[in-house]
Amino acid sequence: MSENNNQQVFDITIDVVPKNNGSKCFDDDGRLKRTGSIWTASAHIITAVIGSGVLSLAWAIAQLGWIAGPSVMFLFSFVSYYTSCLLSDCYRSGDPLTGKRNYTYIDAVRSILGGARVKACGLIQYLNLFGIAIGYTIAASVSMMAIKRSNCFHESGGKKPCHMSSNPYMILFGVTEVLLSQIPDFDQIWWLSIVAAVMSFTYSSIGLALGIVKVASQCF
After folding, report:
1. Distance, CA of 213 to chain centre
2. How far apart are CA 105 and CA 109, in angstroms?
3. What are the extents of the domains in the chain?
4. 3-state secondary structure of 32
């Protein structure tokens, strides 16, 4: 008897996807695939650049004059562009395409500079956040108090002094901030940047309208 040894050869092809290229559902860093577009990025940029400070921009330009005012505007525009380029260059460590991502300022400082500079960066960031929180709380309370006083003047016909304290409005705004900060993944809400961008354009529109009204009142 003879035994026939039939050997079957299987052709197996395995597609190995490099880790840095990510996959269909995940990016190269293992996180969910980013779904942002140029529109969402533009909304984020607008909200970062344009804030409530634009309401006082016309007054600031008027104080500087027609030569120094636009010159300062162009100067700060260049500074914003330059720092944005620096931030984009620091987003990845090592290779600009496949290097490790730096998600925060501290991550970038830790991977590029290291040492005591990391603690200095964290200290500056927290001081900045602390100052911004105080500034916006005061600005919000002053704005709400101004609306209340305006209504009081209209109701009394300008006869009452309408003195009032801003403390209740500060407390109200602070409590609102605390409640909103409890929302999980608040920074991941995609439509929030759209709303903020609309508000930024609203700031600009109000500033433009006030400027037009001021010029028109002086001309006629």
Report:
1. 31
2. 6
3. 63-101, 116-182
4. strand
Q: Please list the rounded mean pLDDT of every run of 10 residues in the chain (220 residues).
A: 49 49 71 79 77 76 90 92 89 83 89 89 93 88 88 80 86 91 81 79 81 80
Dist. CA 91–CA 103, nearest whole Å: 7
Question: Which residue in this structure is represented by tokens 């909304």?
Answer: 43
Q: Which two tokens stand for residue 190?
A: 């995609």
> What does pTM read for this prediction?
0.65
Angstrom distance (rounded) from CA 195 to CA 201: 10
* 88 CB burial (10 A radius; 0-12, 13-18, 19+): exposed
Helices 167-180, 116-156: axis angle to 10 degrees equals 130
Cα-flanking dihedrals φ and ψ of residue 26, to 5°? Answer: -130, 150
